[in-house]
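TASK: fixed-backbone design
INPUT:
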């Protein structure tokens, strides 16, 4: 059932810099995950499950893969004559002049016309670096019940600065009487805190007003110039998300989040029967296993051909693993071919990688080896 009270805006590239290896040729939103999904699927599916039928995806650069994945939005029932999925271009107003936006706030300057055109009461602004299964209806109900100006989606988080040195994406905050009272970015004293997950809900009219005022004042950062400077001028509150959520702020975060999908309990908490994660459908043949194939605790996507051994790994669509090859604790993306007798451990291969016969490649759990898209090793 459509929920006309909310529209969704997804920032497809807001965290590209923290995952440079995987976003060299694609936006963060289109980074592959768990054998057959893209990161945007989690945010987009949550919006659709809440009945949001008007969703805009703000592009920036390297968005060919993203547009190929989204198409007209049919897998998410967003290929509609009215509302539906719409791709918002990267060009528009910048505080420093015309051109591609540099911050989320500048991106909102560029799409102000879309905000004015919408008839929704509320806007959900969301980054695309989260693995979660969110019911946005609960977020809206909470926001309305508290009569808030802005509600931030958050989770409890034990921040370790050494893990994310000087990462401006890590926004932590304290609360007083239910309101956000103090906002910090990568603090040095490592306090147990609430982590802002890059998702918020705000009334459309207030958002337009904020964008207009910010543009007049030549402001560029939504987090610093709007949220951090106005905790007492605006009624900013938080909604503490208690479900499974994995924010991706590094290659290690990405690796760990994928490996957790091998735990049935965690996987079932994320991929729920009554709130499905939707993705682009590909008509692939079932996975094929050779006579000498051996698979232990792994996710094998359709279209894969396994003739060697696979253990504790994520194997994407169309992967081919040759006879005698051994793949362990690895993420092997779509179209990769692993030759005979090759051995891989703690390795992430991007799409269409070729590993020659007999190659040995081993990383570490704390530092997996990454092989870029289309490489031949």
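OUTPUT:
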């Amino acid at each position: 059932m459509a929920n006309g009270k909310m529209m969704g805006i997804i920032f497809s590239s807001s965290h590209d810099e923290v995952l440079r290896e995987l976003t060299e040729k694609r936006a963060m939103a289109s980074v592959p995950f768990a054998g057959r999904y893209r990161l945007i699927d989690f945010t987009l599916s949550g919006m659709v499950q809440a009945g949001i039928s008007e969703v805009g995806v703000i592009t920036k650069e390297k968005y060919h893969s993203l547009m190929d994945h989204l198409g007209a939005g049919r897998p998410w029932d967003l290929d509609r004559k009215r509302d539906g999925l719409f791709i918002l271009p990267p060009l528009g107003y910048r505080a420093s002049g015309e051109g591609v936006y540099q911050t989320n706030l500048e991106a909102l300057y560029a799409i102000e016309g879309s905000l004015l055109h919408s008839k929704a009461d509320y806007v959900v602004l969301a980054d695309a670096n989260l693995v979660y299964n969110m019911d946005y209806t609960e977020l809206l109900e909470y926001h309305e019940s508290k009569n808030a100006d802005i509600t931030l989606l958050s989770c409890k988080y034990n921040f370790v600065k050494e893990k994310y040195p000087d990462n401006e994406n890590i926004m932590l905050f304290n609360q007083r009487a239910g309101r956000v009272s103090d906002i910090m970015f990568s603090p040095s004293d490592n306090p147990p805190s609430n982590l802002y997950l890059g998702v918020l809900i705000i009334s459309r009219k207030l958002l337009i007003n904020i964008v207009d005022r910010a543009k007049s004042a030549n402001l560029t950062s939504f987090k610093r110039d709007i949220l951090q400077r106005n905790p007492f001028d605006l009624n900013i509150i938080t909604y503490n998300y208690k479900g499974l959520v994995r924010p991706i702020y590094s290659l290690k975060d990405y690796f760990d989040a994928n490996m957790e999908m091998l735990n049935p309990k965690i996987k079932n908490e994320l991929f729920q029967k009554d709130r499905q994660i939707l993705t682009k459908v590909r008509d692939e043949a079932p996975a094929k296993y050779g006579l000498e194939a051996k698979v232990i605790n792994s996710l094998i996507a359709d279209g894969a051909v396994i003739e060697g051994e696979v253990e504790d790994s994520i194997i994407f669509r169309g992967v081919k693993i040759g006879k005698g090859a051994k793949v362990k604790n690895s993420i092997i993306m779509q179209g990769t071919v692993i030759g005979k007798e090759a051995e891989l451990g703690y390795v992430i291969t991007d799409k269409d990688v070729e590993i020659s016969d007999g190659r040995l490649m081993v990383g570490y759990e704390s530092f997996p080896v990454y092989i870029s898209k289309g490489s031949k090793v």
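COMMENT: The mean pLDDT is 91.
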